[in-house]
Amino acid sequence: MQALVFDRPALDTSATRIARLEPPTPGSGQVAIRVAYAGINFKDVMSRRGDPGYAPRWPFVPGVEVSGTVVGLGPEASGHRVGDPVVALTNEGGLAEIAVAEAALTVPMPAGLDPGRAASAPGALTTAILLHDHAARVRAGDIVLVHSAGGAVGRSLADVARARSGARLVGVVGAATRVGTARDAGYPTVLVRGDALAADVRAGTSGRGVDVVLDPQGTAFLHEDLAALAPGGRIILFGNAAGGELAALPPTHLLYRHNASVGGFSLAALSADAPAMVAAAMRAALYMLAAGESTSEVVVLPGLAATPDAQQALADGAGRGKYVVRVSG
Fold it and tell me: What residue stretches are annotated with the Enoyl reductase (ER) domain (predicted)?
């Protein structure tokens, strides 16, 4: 089979290639899927950079989400049959003609849903639902600040908030060129990240601050996040897009001072610890897509050979919409 491979850590496409590999064999509780479409995610970039915990071996096949058809069942794999059209969270290995996924993280593809669009569900949209409903427990009336509002998860969070809580959204972007993208996604207020971020947030909320901060930038802006919180607010860190070493969390006295809580979220870890919760969120994400409740643009690329440039666009902050690559079919 053909697959996209990272041979070693790299900041560009120099160590990325399309390789011919032996197809993987599903293990216990797993299914093999002939991949029709695979999503491209910022996690690919973090794996390619060699960020700790993202690429457990080299060479490495990235790819966290796929749509396709079941072509093999491992021992103890239940709930699926060969020939079933499915959508799966693979966590790795999805950018290949054959991918393996846990049966518990593989769900039926809704009838009539475009499989290219379906492949965009297990990553960003599922993450957004889990962040909104479970990690941050967003409620009606909350003010929610979202970093990287113009990115795939940021755009999905706007869709989820609009459909589920109606929370007031404040988007934060890293450059003025991303303001329009965040506004188009559904953020009525968009701020450019900088030294005055907390002051800007308070000015825009009549001094109140925000109830929730959702931050994929690791700990790089944690002190600004704390300063922007309303009393009783909560911060959820859900990635380390900035790369590098994570700093220590704020000392306890600062949490007391702000009546604040800081939590973490990892889709990969939750899929290992609570696969039923993740699968339920995937089904909800697919329902949102089928119901037209997601406004994110899906950009379909013609084949694996187009993937390295799309990953580089994400690394450069120049991506447009949600990239999905047609792998086969």
Answer: 12-325
